[in-house]
Fold this protein.
Amino acid sequence: MKLDNQNFSDSVAMLSDNGAQNVLVPVGNSGDMAKIQQELLAKTNMLFYKDAMKLLEKGIVEE
C-alpha cells in the first residue's frame, strides 16, 4: 500500500494542522518523508505499518 506522492505531504500537513499528533503511514511512503517540511516532522509522530494487521495494532495501541 502506498499513498500518492503529491497528496502524501499535503495529507500530513492537513492532519497536523487539525491537531493530529500521530500519523499512521504505509511503509511504502517511507521514501517520501524527505518531502515533508521539517516543522511538520518535529511536531508529528509518524507510525509506519506494512499491512492491515499492523495498522490495526498501531491504531489500537497508540490510542
